[in-house]
Amino acid sequence: METPIVVQDVHKSFGKVKALHDISFTVNEGELFGLIGPDGAGKSTLFRILTTLLLADKGQATVNGLDVVKDYKAIRKIVGYMPGRFSLYQDLTVQENLDFFATIFNTTVAANYELIEEIYVQIAPFKDRPAGKLSGGMKQKLALCCALVHKPVVLFLDEPTTGVDPVSRKEFWEMLQRLRKKGIAILVSTPYMDEAMLCDRVALIQNGRLLEIDTPQHIIEQYNKPMWAVHAKRMYPLIQDLRSFPETESCYAFGEYLHLTLKHGEADLDKLQAYLQPKGHEEFSMHPIQAGIEDCFMELMKSEKV
Amino acid sequence: MRTIFFILQKEFLQIFRNRGMMAIIFLIPIVQLLVLANAANYEVRNLAIDVVDQDHSSWSQRLVNKLTASGYFKLHRQTFNEKAAFEDLQLDKADIVLMIPRHFERDLVREDKASLQLLVNAINGSKAGLANGYANNIIRSFNQNIRTEWLALDGRNGPAIIEVTYSNWFNTRLDYKVFMVPGIIVVLVTMIGAFLSGMNIVKEKEIGTIEQLNVTPIRKHHFILGKLIPFWIVALFELALGLLVGKLVFHLPMVGSLWLVFLFAAVYLWVMLGMGLLISTFTETQQQAMFIAWFFVIVFILMSGLFTPVENMPHWAQVLTWFNPIAYFVKVIRMVLLKGSGWANIQIYLLIMLAYAVVMNGIAIWNYRKTT
């Protein structure tokens, strides 16, 4: 069995903008590989190179052992691709879209029904509805179905959960987990860092460069700084105060808490207390927490910028 | 082959599901044919004429009667007052003013010579030209009549008069619609071919479906044929519909073989579809495709000989029409329908169209990329 995806030293520029710079990674069989990065990081460009829609300036990439430039025809037969933008026919019904994509891959929905069954049963009640009239979550499920209908070896999902409600997002990721168990290698990109934990391995991409490739657990383990969750009645003055505190290393808002790290860790706690005392924040609370994957990414992205 | 069939199936599904498209296919052509064929009429009738008759003789009266009886002129005002007539001309109420001076009849009899004056409102040049021409013709024939009458009265032999009789071939009653309807049918078929095909391909780019489609085993030629054939069929259907309406409503003569018309249209359409395809290869949105197609089609139509005869154009413009596919189709459809031209007469045009189709589609396919 060939390695599903191998990317080596891929570069791509659009004019003066370096969209991708020296990208290398591999995705192994049955692996769910996450590409995490903000908008404009180069995720979609990388997807388009791997799905043979775009030529890289430099470097090689293979999908299932096939070169993306020379063997593009063969690649197009064995990959499933879900573009970042909803790309099915909005004026065709769910069933018609599925049938169309099955037939152009020279197969039928029935032939690979076992693979898409789980997802299909969820959209089946709407099978006579035009795809354009589905909810965001349903659209993504349909798109996934269409990408799977020809039983691909490798699946490329470009931001499949962007603009999808949290429940559908969760369901979507559960489906990906099950697909992975069926041996399909999946490359998925997302701007949501919390989704990184659901991947086998993740690559953090920013400004066209890969910052880190590892399992989510490893990335968290490497992050060994003590961190506190801070809360007060009025958050805005608090974040301002904390950021202007000279010993603060980072301070980001995460939900209803601020995640704070200090330059000298616990040694700075007394100073902080003395600093905050006169500011008189109401309902102030502060407790140590375990850093999450998002904290790690924030840290990585910050160090890259510096 | 199977793939093309599936794409065709999908395309027709989308066409028939799109209400706007259905209106474009079924309603607009009929309306356009009915309206345009009736409105695009170059015959000038019922020109408003003001007669300033200062003579009031029997001959002046006869002249006025002859003018109004011709059907070309409708008496708007008869007056002595030059000023009133001139005002009508200025207010656009009269198209032409005939001045009959005092002693018109007397001068004609005594001095063998009289003059008349025509004032023509020449804002619309061609209308003015026609009005002037009609009036001159009628006056000349009036002149001849009175001369023969008068000379005969005189007992002398009048001069020999050359009388010209004529008959109109291919369009006996000079029915303008018979001339226009085939041309308008060409325009309808052209619109479908050039606009809809290109816009349809660009639409896939615009809504992003092309991205999904490109990462499938669909081959370039599958996609292109799958996109063009539906509109080829629709346009041929449009031709049949147009001819049917032409026959039923305008009694369009169909002297030649309809098969030839359809054969020519079938080839011609590949030129237009190729143009649509070519435009779609370098545009990103339907609007862009529409405007570029519009630019070319308008130029092609105006220079096709549909409205103004190609022979009247300056030489350089005539040379340009050699490259104008619409001009060929307008010419051929009129030749076959009105004149009954056969294979021998149109085969050269068909070959030109064929060459054109090959070149156009060749460039388009060469320029078409499945990648971005």
From TrEMBL, chain A:
InterPro entries reported for this sequence: AAA+_ATPase (IPR003593), ABC_transporter-like_ATP-bd (IPR003439), ABC_transporter-like_CS (IPR017871), ABC_transporter_ATP-binding (IPR050763), P-loop_NTPase (IPR027417)
Chain ranges of the ABC transporter domain: 5-232
Gene Ontology molecular function, alphabetical: ATP binding; ATP hydrolysis activity
Keywords of this entry: ATP-binding, Nodulation, Nucleotide-binding, Transport
Gene3D superfamilies linked to this entry: P-loop containing nucleotide triphosphate hydrolases
Any Pfam family: ABC_tran
UniProt record similarity statement: Belongs to the ABC transporter superfamily.
Name of the protein described by the UniProt record: ABC-type multidrug transport system, ATPase component
TrEMBL record, chain B:
Recorded GO CC terms: plasma membrane
Keyword Acetylation recorded: no
Spans through the membrane: 21-40, 179-202, 223-245, 257-279, 291-310, 349-368
Domain of life, source organism: Bacteria
Intracellular or extracellular location(s): Cell membrane
Residue span, ABC transmembrane type-2 domain: 146-371
Alphabetical keyword list: Cell membrane, Membrane, Transmembrane, Transmembrane helix, Transport
One Gene Ontology molecular-function label: ABC-type transporter activity
UniProt membrane topology term: Multi-pass membrane protein
InterPro entries referenced in this protein's UniProt entry, alphabetically: ABC-2_transporter_component, ABC2_TM, ABC2_TM_bact-type
UniProt similarity note: Belongs to the ABC-2 integral membrane protein family.
Protein name as catalogued: ABC-2 type transport system permease protein
Upper classification of the organism: Bacteria, Pseudomonadati, Bacteroidota, Chitinophagia, Chitinophagales
